[in-house]
Amino acid sequence: MSQLCVNNLACIKRDRLLFDAVCFSLQAGDILHLQGPNGAGKTSLLRILVGLSEPQSGSVQWHGAPISQDRAAYHRQLIYFGHKPGVNLALSARENLRYWCDLQGVAQPLDIYSLLDSLGLVGLEDLPASQLSAGQQRRIGLARLWLKSARLWVLDEPFTALDRHAVTLLKQRMQMHLGEGGMIVLTSHQSLEWAGQLKTLHLEYRI
Amino acid sequence: MTAKLTGLLRRDLALAYRQKAELMQPLIFFLIVISLFPLGVGPGPQTLQKIGPGVIWVAVLLSSLLGMERLFRDDFNDGWLEQMMLSGLPLSLVVLIKVAAHWLTCILPLLLVSPLLALFLNLTPPMYQALLLSLLLGTPLLSLVGATGVALTLGLQRGGVLLSLLLLPLLVPLLIFATSAVDAAALQLSYNGQLAIIGALFLLALALTPLATAHALRVSQN
């Protein structure tokens, strides 16, 4: 049985049908690349997938049960990296991650500095995030992928504003996650060079 | 779950400490309004004593509206709200924590300077006692109802004006009962009745507004 199953999802925004009859399912180790032009509803689909918004019709099922049945259990197994990274600009990288760990109920690793170092934030750990570049701010958000072990990652444009080194690092981390039996759903406008098997779903822009 | 909630509270307090300038804004506004009144209406002790409680309460209402948007606006803009909604915590508890942090950082400072201002406006000790009790019971109500208003106007680009229009009518009963308690104290009458009504309003808001706020926040995500 597949772990994440999406049935007949439809979404209407401002009287415009973004998509309907979207179906897919993911098994352990699967990665789904969501493609489509701007405004096709990729982000809307991801938000429905994680339970932030409700679909017009259809359902998202986690281990055979609708996600609304036990949201807390579903969210424990989920990391969502959204269009907005959830990084507060007045707090430093370390504080942002610390409070996120508190919120998720995961223990903070002792070597948070070495994690931030490996993400190229050497010496910037304690600066307010407002002083960092856009790419560096997104790296703070992406550091969560190393902090919490979750089965399902939902990533909205994770490669935006990242340099080549960070993209490689993130891809390695994603490979590792899939190897451990995890699942990934992501959107990206770049074509994804992927070593393993890659599922794709194309959303059309409808008028 | 308690650890998660205390973590949230710690974050909000740390954030308030980091943004001291924004935090000072309502406090300074409060101080300015109240110190301008004796200049405007004349320094007659009797007049000041008569209008004092009303002035302090109106100033508290207006200056707390000034910082009200801080409750959810930043979290909404930077995506932290989404992370909180996906944390597995009941959203109404998250709302309660946010409200508590808002009260501690934005409203408690107003209460702390209020003895000084009571002195400015020539309030007698029994009047000040009544004022302080009405503020202690009434201001949490302000934060709770304010949170619902902010959550309802989150999706709007400039929700500030609408927020005041939404909230002020709801807060008028609070103002009436609070100032009437202080007036009663000035006449050395018992003001338990007024305090009891404010207390009842507070408890009602404590029970219902977190649910309404949580729902409004969910709608803002759609």
Written overview of the protein:
Chain A is α/β, with parallel strands linked by helices and 207 residues long. Chain A has two domains: 4-77 and 150-202, 3-Layer(aba) Sandwich (Rossmann fold), CATH 3.40.50; 87-139, no CATH class. Chain A is built from seven helices and nine strands, in the order βββαββαβααααβαββ. In chain A, the strands form two sheets. A five-stranded parallel β-sheet of chain A has the order 6-7-8-3-9, sandwiched between helices. A four-stranded antiparallel β-sheet of chain A has the order 2-1-4-5, with helices on one face. The radius of gyration of chain A is 17 Å and the shape is globular. The termini of chain A are far apart. The model of chain A has no long low-confidence stretch (mean pLDDT 89). Chain B has 222 residues and is mainly α. Chain B has one domain (2-220). Chain B is built from nine helices and no strands. Chain B has helices spanning 2-18, 20-41, 45-68, 73-78, 80-85, 91-120, 125-152, 160-186, 192-220. Classes of the chains: A alpha/beta (207), B mainly alpha (222). At the A-B interface, α2 and α3 of A face α1, α4 and α5 of B.
Summarize the structure.
Chain A has helices at residues 42-50, 71-76, 93-104, 112-118, 134-142, 144-147, 164-179; strands at 4-13, 16-26, 31-35, 57-62, 65-66, 78-81, 152-156, 183-187, 199-202.
Descriptive keywords:
heterodimer; A: 207 residues; alpha/beta; Rossmann fold; five-stranded parallel sheet; four-stranded antiparallel sheet; 7 helices; globular; B: 222 residues; mainly alpha; 9 helices; elongated; AAA+_ATPase (chain A)
